Amino acid sequence: MDKLVIKKSPALQGSVTISGAKNAALPLLITCLLTDQQCRFSNVPNLRDINTSLALLAEMGVTVEREDDNTVLLNASTLNSITASYELVRTMRASILVLGPLLAKHGKANVSLPGGCAIGARPVNLHLTGLEKMGATIEVEEGYIRANVNGRLKGARIFMDIVSVGATENLMMAAALADGETILENAAREPEIVDLAACLNSMGAKIEGAGTDNIRIQGVAELHGCDHQVLPDRIETGTFLVAAAVTAGKIRCEKAAPETLDAVIDKLQQAGATITTGDDWIELDMKGELPRAVDLKTAPHPGFPTDMQAQFVTLNCVAEGTGVVTETIFENRFMHVPELHRMGADIALEGNSAVSKGKSHLRGAPVMATDLRASASLVIAGLVADGETTVNRIYHLDRGYESIETKLGNLGANIQRVKE
Ligand SMILES: CC(=O)N[C@H]1[C@@H](OP(=O)(O)OP(=O)(O)OC[C@H]2O[C@@H](n3ccc(=O)[nH]c3=O)[C@H](O)[C@@H]2O)O[C@H](CO)[C@@H](O)[C@@H]1O
Ligand SMILES: C=C(OP(=O)(O)O)C(=O)O
Questions:
Q1: Model-level pTM?
Q2: Which one, 34, 153, 162, 176, has least CB within 10 Å?
Q3: Which residues carry a binding-site annotation for UDP-N-acetyl-alpha-D-glucosamine?
Q4: For residue 14, which of 283, 203, 262 has the smallest C-alpha distance?
């Protein structure tokens, strides 16, 4: 299995081009199930999770073509199966998003139940009860969600008691082809949902309110194809900004979407960064200074994203002062903490908070993470640790970061992929 070997690096300098957002691309690719016409997606990141999604769609009979590394053509008129198998679903939870579109377009779906995963239990009850409200009958048998509807799904008023990105996306896609109006209350407001709604509307859907907690969808009988460019990845952007901050560097992220990063930018400014933004770029300059520790609490958008929590725990470990990071979305998302301890970090876990006392030195060590952003936090720690850090099991990183070693290397990081 590949690993990354990182040596203490100079202050990061230069510019990096941000890829399309993994978490926008995954639901976007799945919209192809809602139409018999061709869908073209550009700025698709070249990632393991994208390949898994394409394999899942191909397994169901969708015609998948790649125009180039970042452009995909999909045509679901050749669909011949409504089953999403355990083999693929178990490697990527977002596979659950095929459930709503398959039900809406074909009246049935058979989707493996995604298991618990490293960061928490992650149930799918909101996806299922929402679809039941729209008239679906759902049974869970032998680890599979078996869903049916007689005729079309029906529009419904659906209140979700927890803000869920995935449930909002699944139900929005299903409602686009339902009979009548659906109102999603307490909907998630993430930029990826706004991007999905824009794509669906370009296919002929009638969706209003995406980006607010009340989304109204007038169902239509048919959707057509699309040509959609995926939103820039705000989590990849934030990860590079933190990497630059801990090395007291100065970098510019190109092809980024600064308006999706308010909460992260705010914390970087509190940490001492000077941030400048344009329409599609963000620049961070530490003016040669190391960061100050920050306190933060994760929350649904526009709050501080849980997918940036691990990277800020690392920042606090090497910052000036003590910072408290509180995780409120997932119950088990501090797996980077024991690995950071191995690198000499001073972090105390108190309930759902990580209290870090900043130190000027971490030391390199072999480390391993069991989830994507935890792995990113260890790579960042490796940049400032004395000596050599080996990050093992990097297939997690490859799920969500396109060419991370090349991009960091171009900014001056001392990082190499070792193939095994
Ligand atoms: C592919 C993708 O876009 N993944 C993102 C998405 O995951 P995902 O869509 O899986 O996350 P959710 O927003 O659904 O999860 C938020 C919380 O709701 C809970 N929940 C969710 C659904 C449900 O039916 N019942 C329930 O209780 C979850 O366990 C969690 O505690 O949003 C998360 C929260 O911003 C991010 O960390 C992930 O990177
Ligand atoms: C948790 C994440 O992704 P997923 O929901 O695909 O597991 C993530 O992107 O940090």
A1: 0.98
A2: 162
A3: 93, 307, 329
A4: 283
